[in-house]
Design a protein that fits this description.
Elements lengths: L5 H5 L14 E2 L3 H8 L3 H11 L7 E4 L4 H13 L6 E6 L10 E2 L3 H6 L8 E6 L7 E9 L3 E7 L6 H4 L7 E6 L16 E6 L2 H21 L12 H13 L16 H17 L1 H4 L2 E8 L3 E9 L20
Antiparallel strand pairs: 1-2, 2-5, 3-4, 3-5, 6-7, 6-10, 7-8, 8-9, 10-11
Length: about 325
């Protein structure tokens, strides 16, 4: 049990570093993360992003979900006024389905996820980032000549871009800068090479796809097979009722795409340009994943090799949306 007692916490005791259970390792503790979890790519990616001073959600890594851990998280969530957590799993077995899913459980939901833990699987437990929090998602490719950003709007999953299931809603191609440019974080008109925004008809098609995916997850769980065809009217109404009830960001952006604001773009550009200027060996040829959250603002999620299909590229090839047979 952590140092402070349960009675002290109930009385409003503020959590201290000494209260953190031994089984939890902070994402910002890169040395400890590297020592314990060097074989886990997703965890190491998040920890490295934090070490490079990029904004990431506050959180921990653990091999177990014990009662002491749950007790600590109860008060950690209370301090941050959160009802849910963000949970990602990482494994030494890259094909495990859990590696590809982000869960947003309540504390009781996390308790019930204990069965997913075993010797090869670890959990990353972070601040809340559920559907009501999701704003824009961004993929940034660090190519030889340019920085290429592909954006999906509020309520969409940036992983759909990686799977080639939707086309980006907005694209930016920026010139690269070097460390001798004192304004490497500043975004000016001369830095922009290309900019495009999705046509409304294509955006509405992507909304239909998103509805289909949400319905599949509602019906079959997170392991549901993706589909991109339009739902029957009754099923579409079910989805709209759910996203309205949960006040998801998609509900307020289902009719048209609203372009990324200059303030958000400038903030994003500052970080990716800094990565490109000061960490070229770590980011060249790779792709960074980021999103804007309503409460937490800009956060980065991952940095991985750019050898997958459907990576952002200068030509901006349109993805082919998949259809059921």
């Amino acid at each position: 049990m952590p140092v402070s007692t349960k009675q002290q916490r109930e009385a409003g005791y503020m959590l201290l570093d000494s209260d953190v259970p031994a089984e939890l390792t902070r994402l910002t503790d890169y040395v400890s993360i590297h020592r314990k979890y060097a074989a886990y790519k997703k965890v190491m990616s998040l920890a490295r992003l934090a070490a490079m001073d990029l904004p990431v959600l506050k959180g921990f890594v653990t091999r177990t979900i014990s009662d002491d851990l749950l007790e600590y998280l109860k008060y950690w969530m209370r301090e941050r006024e959160m009802e849910r957590l963000t949970v990602r799993f990482d494994s030494s077995q890259p094909d495990e389905f859990k590696n590809r899913i982000t869960f947003t459980p309540t504390l009781e939901g996390l308790r019930q996820m204990r069965y997913l833990m075993h010797d090869e699987v670890i959990a990353v437990i972070m601040e809340e980032s559920g559907p009501s929090q999701q704003s824009y998602g961004v993929l940034t490719a660090f190519s030889e000549d340019y920085l290429i950003c592909e954006v999906v709007g509020p309520g969409f999953d940036v992983d759909d871009l990686l799977r080639g299931e939707i086309s980006p809603h907005e694209r930016f191609v920026f010139r690269r800068k070097d460390k001798y440019d004192d304004n490497y974080r500043d975004l000016g008109p001369r830095d922009l090479v290309q900019h495009s925004i999705i046509a409304r008809e294509s955006y509405l098609q992507s909304v239909e796809y998103r509805y289909s995916k949400i319905y599949d997850i509602m019906s079959e769980g997170s392991g549901a097979v993706n589909r991109a065809d339009a739902l029957p009217a009754a099923q579409k109404l079910d989805v709209e009722a759910i996203i309205e009830q949960r006040s998801t960001t998609l509900h307020f952006h289902k009719d048209r795409y609203v372009p990324l604001s200059y303030a958000k773009l400038h903030e994003l550009y500052g970080y990716i340009s800094e990565l490109d200027v000061f960490y070229p060996g770590e980011v060249s040829g790779k792709v960074a994943v980021a999103s804007f959250l309503k409460k937490r603002g800009l956060v980065f999620w991952d940095l991985f090799g750019g050898d997958r299909k459907n990576m952002p590229n200068q030509k901006g090839n349109t993805r082919l949306q998949k259809r059921r047979n």
